[in-house]
TrEMBL record:
Subcellular compartments: Cytoplasm
Acidic residues biased stretches: 382-394
An MF annotation (GO) of this entry: GTP binding
Gene: cetZ
Name of the protein in its database record: Tubulin-like protein CetZ
Species in which this protein is naturally found: Halarchaeum grantii
InterPro entries named in the record: CetZ, CetZ_C, FtsZ/CetZ, Tubulin/FtsZ-like_C, Tubulin/FtsZ_GTPase_sf, Tubulin_CS, Tubulin_FtsZ_GTPase
Amino acid sequence: MKLAMIGFGQAGGKILDRFLEHDEQTGSNVVRAAVAVNTAKADLMGLEHVPQENRVLIGQSRVKGHGVGADNELGAEIAEEDIDEIQGAIDSIPVHEVDAFLIITGLGGGTGSGGSPVMARHIKRIYTEPVYGLGVLPAGDEGGIYTLNAARSFRTLVREVDNLLVFDNDAWRKSGESMQGGYRQINDEIVTRFGILFGAGEVEQGGEVAESVVDSSEIINTLAGGGVSTVGYAAEDVSDEKQSSGLLSRFTGGDEQSSLDSASTTNRITSLVRKAALGRLTLPCKIENGAERALLVTAGPSQFLNRKGIERGRKWLEEQTGSMEVRGGDYPVEDSNNVAAVVLLSGVTDVPRIKELQQIAIEARENIDDIRGESEQNLQDLVEDDDDELEPLF
């Protein structure tokens, strides 16, 4: 699937940068165009792979390149005011070559949290291609203001995009891990999962063709209907088997596929599908009768993939999710030493984390209002004399 990616805000820009690095390393060519948008000049300067001409600094007249300080209402205002500057970078995107737009953002900050819904609405007004969001929820220990921002931005963005793919930091942060190291690891997890998902079907000239092709239309149809999506992933190292099967093939004169046990290959795939769906999803949710649509992608060396395993995995997903729209296929990656299963669950509704986020945000809003009220009263008590004998200058 060919994507035009827009990284909005600090988190969005870093994830976009990591996607571009992944593209270079794997040759998957998923990112057809990349634009990074921010109100903080330093964040844009820290990117390594986004072309310089596609880094857009907005809000210079208001925040002077220093960011919006987690104020997502200001972030939204600036995005509205400077939308023409962003459009200038988007104009260079060869839209006829892309299947969809993907807006990547951290939902807890200021610039991306406020600006990404504005960006999504603007793009949908101009282009016919689908516009998806990839939103990252803040961890619970990041503070009330970030939770409040995330709850408000989530509610807004899910209405503006054709589908919102969500990654929950709270489910992935490790205790005792440094902030920088933790976010680097999380970005790797995001790109690994979505890189395989979006890379399926993008086979270069002369490359291995999938037995059961997953192309961009399968992904688009799975994400159709809007709502919220989550992704599961599981992988297994097959480097030793890959080496031994190659040696056996040379000795016997047969092809590699014949040297592998078909039943073992099938069982491995079905096991990976279960692990992917029941393990750690990007957004934890209950999958039992809880997804409207699903897509299964199996990736790895072609001799470790087979149609029977995919069909069994797809059938199992149908039974688990209660959905009649479960698609599946394979994605041959010959130089990989892993066999992986990626499960996209679209239209999920039983998501306890979202309800928890909303409740915490409501409490945070009430606390902020109380604190502001107390602060105003305390200031008044401080500056006014007890006998009211002093008068202000004006």
